[in-house]
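From the pipeline queue, job 12 of 40. The input is one protein chain; the requested action is below.

Action: predict structure.
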Amino acid sequence: MPYRVGHSISSSPWLPHNRLGSTHNPPMKLLIVEDNPGVRKVIRDLVAGVASEICECADGAEVLALFRLERPDFVLMDIQMEDVDGITATRQITAADPTARVIIVTNYDEPDLREAAFQAGACRYVSKENLLELVCLLKELANKKEQSDHG
């Protein structure tokens, strides 16, 4: 299945890449929003086995335009970013599309941030300390989506 990775909407947003395996997984397009390139790579590498397509951007300022262009199944959103933070970006995405599914992926686990994320429209909140939980969550959500799509 193809797997596409983009770095921003201003520079060639997709780099095609073929990968083998995972043919039993339902197709899933992900958008990773993370300002740290190393962390973005770690997340991308972890979720590559469950995603059929992946794109990414480095700031919340870019994410709404990329979301509208690519219509991902899930947005994996960092909270702390330089120009537009993840809470604000989540609010913008869910205001533009109430069916959007944003999963906050962050180092911060304070109750007030969790509440702000859910108020902004996030559907889940995952700590970067336990990224394997993210893979399990994506598999679970994708399977639920596939079941609801088929019946």
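Job complete. The domain at 2-149 is CATH 3.40.50.2300 (Rossmann fold).
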